[in-house]
Write a structure and sequence with these properties.
five-stranded mixed beta sheet; flat; 15 strands; alpha+beta
Length: 461
């Protein structure tokens, strides 16, 4: 700039000069220069400087945000086109090129903005797209009218002669001061969705031709599926209360204070109590599983003495084990306190011990072992029961799955489970940041091992 000024010419443009102040702070000064060397009264080169530090920081921030937005737009699965007020394309992402079959989807489309030097003839691209539409052109006219009148259109489905269906949204975009900045076109390929919808419509029509009653039942099933989550959320109030009443009144009827019962009547009450309690357990498991899958269950971690927790869990199952002719053993080493939701951990241990007792023949043994390991605790529940077939192991943690040998004779009547115990147990253990594994040999026994960190990895949710 100085040398240019020395020749008597004014330099074009400015330069940014970074300066460090006496306080050690860097400032950016925008410098311009003017030549007065030919002026007899001045005979000098004059430099002008403006502090633009904050302006440059703002520009850098804006540039970063623009680049981030450009990357977001470019990696979207849906196509985006930005048309100016005259209908010219000012922005097109990779998905738009692919959906409109411009031929540039595999080339350099890393830039989202279209420039005047862009070799692509967008008018021709849109014209070819219109030519590939079916005979019905009313949709195109409606879109043109919406663009002309600056009105919004959402969810306009346009079928092409090649079988594809694109869904368009037209959204007017206002610039600074509410000035017209054009229209944003959002493009989605909904071919699969439309095909599914048409298939459902055809099936519905077929069912209606056969029987209106069947069609109504089918609609009810669809609505029931849509309301599944709501049902699970309200099932506690709708079913748990009445079932609890059934159990309570069954106990009252069985109480000797209410009168003597015949042997058959007492058997009937036992059946009512057993099945009602089974339904209650199923409802509780469904509710808990729903909360776990929705990540709405929050742990309540407290310092816990794991040996004491295990002793309580084993003691609660000991009467059942003794009645089944089993030897239930607890082998627990001493160790540091475990920060966990003691109610949920007790539930997991109870599930595992209950399964072990249920599927171990009379004369067998169930052993609960625990001890500190690494930064936490390891708990193992081992039994000498019927075991699990190797083919069933991969599906063991699937909801409602029960082993193919659950009906194997264990020497006594076994109440079938719901197939949710292991699923719920794994979800609770993983919510604590731990893990659970199963090793089993059919006819030999099963060992379920779980590890718990010293404190939960997160507080659920």
């Amino acid at each position: 700039m100085f040398l240019t000024c020395c020749t008597g010419r004014h330099p074009t443009g400015t330069v940014d000069l970074r300066l460090c102040t006496a306080a050690g702070r860097w400032r950016t000064v925008e410098v311009a220069a003017r030549s007065f060397v030919d002026d007899a009264q001045v005979g000098a080169v004059v430099f002008f400087g403006i502090d633009v530090t904050r302006q440059r920081e703002t520009e850098r921030t804006v540039l970063v945000e623009q680049q981030r937005l450009a990357r977001l737009v470019e990696t979207m699965g849906d196509g985006l086109l930005l048309l100016d007020e005259r209908g010219r394309v000012g922005l097109a992402n990779l998905a738009a090129h692919r959906l409109l079959d411009t031929g540039l989807a595999g080339s350099d489309t890393s830039r989202s903005h279209v420039t005047e030097d862009d070799p692509l003839d967008w008018a021709a691209v849109i014209g070819r797209a219109i030519e590939r539409l079916g005979a019905d052109s009313t949709r195109v006219e409606r879109l043109r009218e919406a663009f002309r009148l600056r009105s919004a259109i959402v969810g306009e489905e346009i079928p092409f002669d090649d079988g594809r269906v694109l869904e368009l949204d037209l959204v007017p975009v206002a610039g600074p001061g509410e000035s017209d900045s054009g229209t944003l076109v959002h493009i989605r390929d909904v071919t699969a969705r439309v095909a599914i919808r048409h298939g459902l419509e055809e099936r519905s029509r077929g069912l209606e031709e056969r029987s209106r009653g069947l069609e109504e039942r089918n609609q009810a099933l669809i609505e029931a599926t849509a309301l599944n989550n709501e049902f699970v959320a309200t099932v506690s109030h709708e079913l748990r209360g009445p079932l609890s009443s059934v159990v309570a009144f069954a106990h009252l009827l069985g109480d000797a204070a209410t009168g003597d019962l015949s042997e058959d009547q007492r058997t009937y009450l036992d059946v009512i109590d057993r099945n009602a309690n089974r339904l209650l357990r199923l409802i509780e498991d469904l509710l808990l599983l729903s909360r776990l899958e929705a990540r709405t269950l929050h742990l309540k971690p407290v310092p816990t003495r794991l040996p004491e927790l295990l002793a309580v869990a084993v003691a609660e199952r000991t009467p059942v084990a003794l009645a089944a002719g089993l030897h239930l053993v607890l082998e627990c080493a001493d160790g540091p306190e475990l920060i966990c939701d003691d109610t949920r951990v007790h539930q997991v241990v109870d599930n595992l011990v209950s399964n072990a007792v249920k599927f171990t023949p009379s004369g067998g043994q169930v052993t609960v072992r625990a001890g500190p390991a690494d930064d936490g605790w390891t708990i193992a529940v081992a039994d000498s029961g019927v075991g699990i077939p190797a083919a069933d192991l991969p599906r063991l943690f699937s909801a409602f799955f029960r082993g193919s040998n659950v009906a194997a004779a264990v020497g006594r009547q076994v109440m079938p489970g719901t197939g949710l115990g292991l699923v719920v147990s794994r979800a609770i253990v993983e919510l604590h940041g731990g893990g659970i594994s199963v090793a089993s040999t059919e006819g030999v026994g099963t060992t379920v091992t779980l590890s718990l960190p010293s404190r939960p990895a997160r507080n659920g949710g």
